[in-house]
């Protein structure tokens, strides 16, 4: 029929993107959002809503055909046909997104200057991809920038669109070939920030040339230290440090302005609407890790797109094996990377995808990052991650509340990647410093506190103002569970810092200087500051919550790491717990807390003795000495513990300023019998249960339960040791001089 002929002729005018897969899509399939099998597509064109689909298809084809044939400048107000087709494109773009074959026509007409800027602006804002954008369409549209037919505002809008949809472009080879052309636009002050952003995305090592570095330095001298220029210079310096001699800020920052404009929300809407039914986007992506069902832009980047390598290259790879590829200079596409042996064979031929988010879910690429310390990869990942965290944060951006669950998943993915690499991302640190002052302590709590545990070792002064202070405010005003979660997170942070120290000390055993320009004394000071901070908030929290056993467990767990730093982590530092932690644990009514405190004091003694032996024998590896105050504090605590648990003299001999020493007359007024022995291993509230069970076993018929009958403490101690009180056992055996069992 005439209608069918028109549709066929319209299709021949375009060059639709050919997707090399079993399931191929056409325009009607895209409109309906369903999968069409290549073998059955001719037979199965009868859909329930066939008339509606054909109508939409005809409308879009008519609109594209109209814009393709526009020759003269047309006024929007006086042309109803133009208004109709423009509305059609906008409506379909916001509903389903545009098919790949539509971009060539719309980009060319928008940048050709044939229509008014108001029309061109509306066309550019409607360029929302349903799947991918053909590279040929982008390259063709870039050529219009040479002739100057479009206004500067349209050029800026086009660049912003190009940056926003960069990850949707199917290939990048021809676009990278235009690197010099884009670079020439840096002289335009309005376009410079967006050109730098685009160049940042396109830059490879071969793009770095001395004349380009000189040009950037000249621009920096003229414009000042602009963040977009610093970003490009930083990337250049990573690729060719010998060519960029100037010092650039080491801290990651927000280099570029938000370029996403109206497209981000539209892309999210289209993705969400097409999520369940649209196979177009799904068939254009190859899964690299676990299946994802993400809707947001950053989540679509957690998979590796097949478009990161050209179709011809993919077809050639299918006919080769990995060993053949190793003998050539061809890059190995990461979407073909399936096994660890492939990674080893092609480790020098891998080219990371433009979508750096896909790296986070691919263990093989994370292995690559661990093995090949390519700073450019980290910089690209940090840039992408920093931008994403800032823009998707649900409590920093008001409109993002509906995406909290997806943001949780993203933070979880970042955390797992940090655990895999065993190092924190500086972009996460920057995000935490900026967002924690605005955080309510509830949204994404588990994920945020996990990210805190991977903050890299850095200056504590900055960490205190940006992390510790806002965290302390939330800590003191939140629930008991939140307090325990924070202590646990800071314990993991300390553990990660100490592991980092051990790794770098093993790598450079004779050096007193670590990487990150952190000296050993600097590491000691930073770790000590963190421990003092935890001691302070722990003391306050125990008072606020009336010394709960649950909280005390997490605090003592933290000090189990602190007490062993010298021997286990080779760090010349020991910090005693504050009295506000020590005495609540000593007087706790829970035997687990008391046993844990005994073990901690035993390990403190072991570390201090080792340090003193090293100092006296002058065989110490590290040129540090513990202060006399540390030994004095330990001795005061030991006197209190022995007087409490063993000699029943704690009220007379405890010499700590915040200790238990009390006047005899005051103690008599309490009317407590045997108050002197009130906290020894028999009468201690945490030990009474064991004493009761011991008496029941020793005298089954006695119902008086007279604790004074427990006189042979050796038998009682053996009973306690059999109850898995290992901490109490090692403390008594190491810190108390007992009469030998033989003499007894």
UniProtKB/TrEMBL annotation:
Signal peptide: none annotated. One of its GO terms (cellular component) is inner kinetochore. It comes from the Eukaryota. It is found in: Chromosome, Centromere; Nucleus. GO terms for biological process: CENP-A containing chromatin assembly; mitotic sister chromatid segregation. Keywords: Centromere, Chromosome, Nucleus. Belongs to the CENP-I/CTF3 family. This is Centromere protein I. It comes from Leptosomus discolor. The lineage of its organism: Eukaryota, Metazoa, Chordata, Craniata, Vertebrata.
């Amino acid at each position: 029929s005439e209608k069918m002929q028109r549709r066929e002729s319209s299709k021949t005018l375009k060059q639709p993107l050919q997707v090399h897969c079993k399931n191929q899509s056409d325009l009607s399939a895209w409109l309906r959002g369903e999968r069409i099998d290549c073998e059955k597509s001719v037979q199965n064109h009868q859909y329930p809503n066939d008339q509606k689909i054909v109508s939409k298809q005809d409308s879009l084809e008519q609109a594209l055909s109209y814009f393709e044939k526009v020759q003269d400048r047309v006024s929007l107000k006086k042309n109803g046909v133009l208004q109709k087709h423009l509305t059609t494109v906008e409506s379909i773009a916001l509903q389903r997104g545009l098919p790949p074959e539509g971009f060539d026509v719309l980009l060319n007409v928008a940048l050709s200057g044939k229509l008014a800027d108001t029309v061109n602006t509306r066309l550019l804002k409607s360029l929302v991809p349903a799947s991918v954008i053909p590279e040929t369409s982008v390259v063709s549209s870039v050529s219009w920038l040479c002739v100057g037919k479009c206004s500067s505002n349209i050029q800026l809008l086009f660049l912003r669109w190009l940056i926003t949809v960069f990850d949707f472009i199917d290939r990048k080879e021809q676009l990278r070939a235009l690197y010099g052309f884009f670079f020439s636009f840096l002289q335009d002050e309005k376009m410079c920030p967006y050109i730098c952003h685009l160049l940042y995305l396109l830059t490879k090592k071969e793009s770095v040339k001395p004349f380009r570095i000189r040009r950037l330095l000249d621009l920096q001298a003229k414009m000042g230290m602009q963040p977009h220029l610093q970003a490009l210079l930083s990337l250049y310096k990573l690729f060719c440090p010998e060519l960029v001699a100037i010092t650039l800020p080491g801290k990651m920052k927000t280099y570029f302005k938000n370029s996403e404009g109206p497209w981000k929300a539209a892309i999210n809407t289209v993705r969400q609407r097409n999520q369940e039914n649209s196979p177009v986007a799904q068939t254009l992506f190859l899964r690299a890790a676990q299946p994802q069902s993400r809707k947001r832009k950053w989540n679509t980047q957690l998979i590796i797109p097949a478009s990161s390598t050209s179709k011809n290259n993919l077809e050639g790879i299918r006919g080769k094996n990995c060993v053949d590829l190793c003998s050539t200079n061809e890059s190995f596409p990461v979407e073909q990377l399936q096994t660890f042996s492939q990674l080893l064979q092609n480790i020098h031929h891998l080219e990371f995808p433009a979508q750096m988010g896909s790296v986070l879910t691919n263990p093989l690429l994370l292995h690559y990052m661990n093995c090949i310390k390519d700073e450019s990869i980290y910089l690209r990942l940090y840039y992408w991650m920093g931008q994403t965290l800032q823009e998707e944060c649900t409590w920093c951006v008001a409109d993002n509340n509906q995406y909290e669950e997806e943001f949780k998943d993203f933070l979880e993915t970042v955390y797992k990647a940090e655990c895999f690499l065993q190092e924190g991302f500086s972009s996460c640190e920057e995000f935490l410093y900026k967002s924690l002052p605005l955080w309510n302590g509830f949204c994404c709590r588990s994920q945020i506190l996990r990210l805190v545990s991977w903050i890299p070792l850095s200056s504590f002064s900055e960490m205190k103002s940006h992390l510790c202070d806002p965290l302390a405010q939330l800590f003191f005003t939140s629930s008991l569970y939140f307090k325990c979660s924070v202590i646990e997170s800071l314990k993991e942070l300390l553990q990660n810092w100490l592991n980092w120290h051990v790794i770098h000390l093993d790598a450079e055993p004779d050096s007193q200087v670590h990487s990150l320009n952190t000296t050993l004394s600097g590491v000691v000071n930073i770790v000590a500051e963190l421990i003092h901070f935890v001691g302070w908030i722990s003391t306050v929290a125990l008072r606020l919550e009336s010394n709960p056993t649950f909280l005390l467990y997490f605090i003592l767990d933290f000090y189990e790491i602190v007490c062993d730093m010298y021997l286990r982590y080779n760090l010349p530092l020991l910090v005693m717990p504050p009295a506000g932690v020590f005495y609540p644990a000593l007087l706790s009514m829970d035997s687990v807390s008391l046993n844990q405190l005994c073990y901690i004091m035993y390990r403190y003694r072991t570390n201090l003795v080792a340090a003193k032996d090293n100092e006296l024998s002058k065989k110490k590896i590290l040129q540090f000495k513990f202060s006399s105050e540390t030994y004095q504090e330990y001795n005061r605590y030991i006197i209190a513990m022995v007087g409490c648990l063993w000699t029943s003299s704690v009220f007379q001999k405890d010499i700590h300023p915040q200790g238990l020493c009390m006047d005899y007359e005051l103690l008599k007024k309490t009317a407590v019998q045997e108050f002197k022995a009130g906290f020894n291993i028999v009468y201690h509230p945490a030990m009474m249960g064991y004493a009761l069970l011991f008496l029941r076993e020793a005298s089954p018929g006695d119902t008086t339960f007279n604790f004074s009958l427990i006189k042979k403490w050796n038998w009682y101690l053996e009973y306690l040791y059999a109850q898995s009180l290992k901490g109490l056992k090692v403390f008594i055996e190491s810190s108390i001089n007992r009469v030998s069992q033989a003499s007894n």
